[in-house]
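The protein record passed on for reference:
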Amino acid sequence: MPGNIVFDRIKRSENRKIAEVTRFLRANDLSIDTTVEIFITVSRNQQLIACGGIAGNIIKCVAIDESARGEGLALTLATELINLAYERQCTQLFIYTKSENEALFKQCGFYPLARVPNIMVLMENSATRLQQYASYLTTLRRSGKKIGCIVMNANPFTLGHRHLIQTAASQCDWLHVFMVKEDTSRFPYEDRLTLVRAGARDIDRITVHRGSEYMISRATFPCYFIKEQSVINHCYTEIDLQIFRQHLAPALGITHRFVGTEPFCKVTADYNRDMRTRLADTSSNAPAIELVEIERLAYREKYISASWVRQLLVKHDLATLEHLVPEATRDYLQHMIAAQKNRPTIPPESALITGEK
């Protein structure tokens, strides 16, 4: 690597440097991913020639300038990113990358988990961790001819979610409920999990599972190297369902997956439609799974949704909220509203200086 090579670490708060990284990524046909918390940049003679970022336990936004390719810089950068993640106590690492970069990250100790041919690959820094997780799930397996599954965000848990669980459980010998593990909303994951368990504790024949990184979150799914939204949606569906059908569902003997009807979000409606086809595809070596849609619960002729609950929360409309959520969620939201009302309002420093209010 000829020239004066300098490695630097840039936090999201360093606006001027982040702007430079953004320009560099655009020049290399990539977008910046807003979930990246810290970047490693590589400069030569004060010119940016490579970068990569860490978002939680996911490596993102890896780019090498064309002038620096073939110098072994990619492997050095990847190693620096892995070391940075380890310093941040993230040892279970994933990377979503273009198919053409798979060989590079194999050199760094990453192994493919799922692929969308000629577009992207999801890799992990372990050859066995997914198999170990599937083996753990087999210890939670329940007997029966009809074993159901629900995957939900519950952001927050509503009577609509409870209706879905209760209806699905009534149709199954056992029902497995998985929480998507991500913390990108105002409702922390641990709180959401607690509310689901509290709101569904009286429903028989169900297991509420802690989430895992193998239930792919749309919120953390990277799209910085894909320009078309339709391709992003296709890749998310493929990656998510490959792991679910080939590894997680067989471990638990899942035969049916339940979803609520989706009248609001076209992306979710399309995902449910594609899921029906992919889970039943007989060309796969994994057992087929039947998708079952359950009509959403309504209140006053309006479908109950978490987004409706969030809107009412902003308005502090407890009178309507209590008709849409279980008791535990209602108490949780009441506490949130009370905390907001009791929080002192402090004008920003700029307002104190200028007299603005």
User: Anything to note?
Assistant: The CA atoms of residues 335 and 352 lie 30 Å apart. The longest helix spans residues 229-252. The two ends are 55 Å apart (CA to CA). Confidence is low (pLDDT under 50) at residues 346-357.
